Amino acid sequence: MVAAASLAAKEYAIGVAPRGGRVTVPEEVSEARQFLEQARLDVGYLPTAVRGVADSDLAALEAMIDRVAPPDSVSQRAGTLIQRIAAAAGGALDPYPQRPPSLARGAAVFREQCVQCHGPTGLGDGPKARQLQGPAPASLADRAAMSTVSPVDVYRKLTIGVAGTAMPQFEETLSPEDRWAVASYVATLRADDAMVREGEGLYGAHCAACHGATGGGDGPLAKSLSVRPPALTFGCCLWPTVSTTAENSCSTMRHYWTLKGSRSCMSSPIPSR
Fold first, then answer.
1. Residues 162-172: b if buried by 16+ CB within 10 A, e if exposed
2. Alpha carbon 69 to its chain's center
């Protein structure tokens, strides 16, 4: 339910003018409605104490979409609902990866599970794409369309699917580790050579002081930290921090993956950007 409510708010924001009152991309608004419908089906699985308020909040979100409310207000209402569910459940609801996801594994799973629809480079031109009913597979390489899509969003869609499209849910067929791996890999598909160069600059500005110019964990600030930065050479991906933009994250990820052949890493203490 948390995934559906969060995705509904994001899809709605893509399909409506910033101040509300005007639908600019009807397909995105329709998708938002379907995510909310999906969420309401799951109300019965929530802790008893929060079921009533969750159903009321979801109904309010549907009404806001019907009257084309400003996207910020929809996002705020969805965020309040998620906080209430988290409080009732006793903690965070997203199972963030305990180890940095592997881009190499993500590429392998993408080839096994996604290429038939999304195509080998994520352009939405796989061999099954034209045979599908409903909306065409998304182009995961479309920089503009994917600019607001974070790895968390991709993970959530992999988990619950996208109602009204041919995108299935993979919660039962892919482990959380594999879903995070694919989400990380998908973030690299939107990046071209220019973004790799941009990522090189971002890495130099924000990462090299601790991780070192070549990712050896030997930057000039490394020895002053309470936890030594790991060498970015052990088969995991450079995971974006929470407040890093989706674009900056995928630029840096793609740059480092290009340099290391899918060998980079995340660690603590990493600051927010």
1. bbbbbbebbee
2. 24
Closest CA to 188 of 97, 267, 96, 264: 264
Backbone angles phi, psi at 215, to 5 degrees: 80, 20
Note the pTM of the prediction, 2 decimals: 0.71
pLDDT of residue 229: 83
For 195, phi and psi rounded to 5 degrees? Answer: -70, -35
In the listed set 138, 167, 189, which residue is the last one of a domain according to the structure? 189
Per the listing, tokens 């503009």 go with 144
Number of domains within the chain: 3
Q: How far apart are CA 85 and CA 70, in angstroms?
A: 23
Q: Which of 189, 217, 245 is the last residue of a domain?
A: 189
Q: Where are the alpha helices (DSSP H) in 19-137?
A: 26-41, 48-66, 71-89, 103-113, 115-118
Q: What is the pLDDT of residues 149-186, one digit of tens each?
A: 888 899 999 999 998 889 999 999 999 999 999 998 99
Q: Which of 5-9, 43-47, 160-164 has the highest mean pLDDT?
A: 5-9
Residue 252 belongs to domain spanning:
193-260
